[in-house]
Specification:
This protein is mainly β. It has one domain. Helix content is about 10%, strand content about 35%. It contains 2 helices and 7 strands; from the N terminus they run E-H-E-E-E-E-E-E-H. The strands form 2 sheets. It has a 5-stranded mixed sheet with strand order 2-3-4-5-6. A hairpin with a 6-residue loop joins strand 4 and strand 5.
């Protein structure tokens, strides 16, 4: 199934706003059931705003103990799309500030909701995936406990202070 919303559909709707409900599995994301999203898509002149909430349960792997665990995901989306190319309005280099992250549709007449949700879920994954505060991941050998016989020669080096 295609999860596409066309610009014409948004422009021709009442108050130039479309409500969109997504409830499906996203390929490439290991989830426990469907990912659900309630989105509102608004036309704001030259821009399209997509806002809403995304929920689901993901199956992640702990970075410390490598056990699988369930991660409850619940976050808000607030994305802006430019209907027309923005490149002409800016010079060669432009500093982006907060609130200026806008996806340029380059004249495209559609927004791919599936791709938007895939990217948003990936970007909202925690940087460090830990199964819980009681994770036994610290039972691995620490660097000080690892013995490498090749490095034993350095243990016997005597450093003599410089004489004046």
């Amino acid at each position: 199934m295609q999860y596409i919303v066309t610009i014409d559909e948004i422009e021709n709707s009442e108050q130039k706003t479309v409500s969109y409900a997504f409830n499906d599995v996203i390929e490439g994301i290991d989830s426990d059931g469907n990912i659900s999203a309630e989105l509102e898509i608004k036309s704001l002149g030259d821009f399209i705003e997509v806002s809403g909430n995304v929920k689901g349960i993901l199956n992640l792997e702990c970075d410390l103990c490598l056990d699988k665990f369930r991660y409850d995901m619940d976050f808000d989306i607030d994305e802006m799309y430019a209907k027309y190319a923005l490149q002409e309005e800016y010079g060669k280099e432009t500093e982006l500030k907060d609130g200026q992250f806008i996806t340029d549709l380059n004249g495209e007449n559609k927004i791919d909701i599936y791709d938007l949700l895939y990217q948003s879920v990936i970007l909202h994954l925690p940087n460090r995936k830990v199964c819980g505060i009681n994770c036994k991941g610290d039972t691995f050998l620490h660097e000080e406990e690892i013995s490498d016989t090749r490095l034993d020669v350095f243990k016997n080096i005597q450093l003599q202070p410089k004489s004046k």
